Amino acid sequence: MDFPWFEFLGLMLAFGINAVIPGADFAMVLRQAVAHGRREALFTSAGIATSILVHGTYTLLGVGVIVGQSLLLFNILKWAGAAYLVWLAIAALRSPPPQPPQVSDNAAARKGDMAAFALGFLTNLLNPKAVLFFLALFTSLVSVHTGGQIKVVYVGSMSIMLFAWFALVSIFFTTPSVRQAFFRFGRWFNRVTGITFLALAVRVALAQQR
């Protein structure tokens, strides 16, 4: 069976356009890059990309349809996501001004890596719009005749693409000149990111089933 390249490229194009539109994931990677550095931003990016595998898996298994059609389940996910973003906003507003990172030991670095990964994973996983986006993407662009193994390739490719995009974002915002520019904002950076997370929380809370 030939690989459906036309379908694959259309799917990746639609996913790629959505990926580069700034949202909660972008705001989180930006904050991690400026406040904590490239390493933690990359681990946060990896967490976001791994969450895409979860969204893709339950969509292929049909669970996404249940969540998309159940008002109760959708609202549970929606309010959990909104609450998580509010928590991130409060944490940002209460944080001290971002400073150049200090050298830490390996144990602390490993702990920071896991925390950064979890931060990215939960930020993407608790976004109810991701559920609706994957449902819309697969129902409109993927044929019912496309094999399960090929769909797995699709999901894996999306995860790799998303990690590559946010890795580039991480690298750009941790270049010395760009990062120093953010340091000059001091507490204003925390206030802007905190308000951004609050605005995203409102946006998630207002999300509706379609």
Mean pLDDT across the residues is 83
The shape, in one word, is globular
In total, how many beta strands? Answer: 0
Coarse structural class: mainly alpha
The helix content is: over 70%
Total DSSP helices: 10
Taking pLDDT < 50 over at least 5 consecutive residues as the criterion, the unreliable ranges are: none
Backbone CA Rg: 18 Å
- Terminal CA distance reads 34 Å
Major β-sheet, in short?
none
Overall description:
- There is one protein chain.
- Helices cover 81% and strands 0% of the residues.
- The protein is globular, with a radius of gyration of 18 Å.
- The chain is an all-alpha fold and 210 residues long.
Task: Describe the structure concisely.
The protein has about 210 residues and is mainly α. About 80% of the residues lie in helices and about 0% in strands. α1 runs parallel beside α8, α2 packs antiparallel against α3 and α2 (about 25-35) runs antiparallel to α6 (about 105-125).
Ordered list of secondary-structure elements with their pairings:
Blueprint: H1 5-20, H2 24-36, H3 38-61, H4 63-69, H5 71-94, H6 106-125, H7 128-141, H8 148-173, H9 176-183, H10 187-205
List keywords for this structure.
mainly alpha, 210 residues, 10 helices, single chain
